[in-house]
Amino acid sequence: MAEIDCGSGRPVVRSAEGARFDRLAITSVFGDPLDLRTWSGAPARLATALNRRGIDVVGIHSGGTRGEHFLLAARQSAIGFGVPSATEAILRGRLARQSAAARIATAARRYGVRHVLHTGTLDLPAVDAASGVRHYVYCDHAWAISLRHRPDIDSYSPRAIRWFDELEREALGCAEHVFTFGRYVRDHLIDHYGLAADRVTAVGCGMGPIRPYYGTKDYANGKLLFVAKHLFQAKGGELVLEAFRIARRARPELTLTIVGNPRARRLVARDPAITFHGHLSFEDLQGLYRDAALLVQPMLNDPWGQVYVEAMVSRTPVLGLDRNGLPEIVEHGRHGFVVDRADPRAIAETVVDAVSDPDRLARMGDSGMRHVLASYSWDRVAARIAAPPVAPANDDLAPLPALSDSPPAALPLPGDGALQSTQAP
Q1: DSSP string for residues in 50-117
Q2: Hey, which residues does 25 pair with through a beta bridge?
Q3: Which of 130, 246, 317, 362 is packed most tightly, with the most Cβ within 10 A?
Q4: In this structure, are residues 300 and 156 in contact, taking their beta carbons and an 8 Å threshold?
Q5: pLDDT of res. 13
């Protein structure tokens, strides 16, 4: 099917001449990669941006069923690795990886695809490399880097930690090229896993449909925002609640709005200064971003954090922990506040310091939005991934020509244009 321009409704014809590939499969173990509900919509939005560059994209869901996960967990336990405490522990095992890789090989043959982009490494190593299929990875972290701050690290035995690291090395080693969200992940893959520098490129990410906000903002309103649609504790929810309680001793006018999974409501005490929202429309969420003076989001181990980018494009400075992707996103404090430890008192002190200077918040809000608009869009990511291999691969996040500096007015739904999707058998 022809690609349809989102604005005019007319067919668009582009050429993929000179690109790394003109036809590509994108995979995910977590769901249909062309569904905006999978992995925060990143695979679907990247597929749409690649499609705009004239590249035909199909989607492959490489994950198994719950029943298959149960059987894999039993087999993993039987060979001496204990009972997996989470789905991730099952997916990281060799048996799950082999099953996922076999699904991809079958679907790639059916589609006639010779290039496969994996969103993460859990469906690698590949089983069809000998047949000439080329595999690439787009990832926001790696196993070893996640160990630095994992809140569940005690649930993994030393043997499992070593085993998963060996499997990660195998998975990355079979990739033709690895694309990362951030430079810090690129550097880690080179230093820890020994990947050649010319095989790893930091390409950034895009964002969801949150639009830049140029309207009036009140940075003196004391409105704090925390967003966690799932994993309330891991996203820093408990830290935020305790830090807010401490900060209000110095600034009693502060208020906190929480956007969370309805199941997290029981963790939030009744307080007239706290507003909890469960399910919100996109328009309402966008309004909260725009109304807030500060996003307080001390995520314990999130590798990147699209919530930071969405807040910044709304001219809302962000506050988080000095770990993983946040220092890179805020350029080490230029557009937000970086706290050196996961301690509610330290977070509270930073909140009080932040809201005490509304003019500084305004400057950070303006610079943050400019930084996001200049650095993060799915068209830029697609341009870097699709660039021919002869291009300098290690020039990382240097500007590249893109089709648009901002997301399209609307994203085509899965199945529109040249996007197809399959549940791999």
Answers
A1: HHHTT-EEEEEE----HHHHHHHHHHHIIIII---SSHHHHHTSHHHHHHHHHHHHHHHHHHT--EEE
A2: 58, 116
A3: 317
A4: no
A5: 35
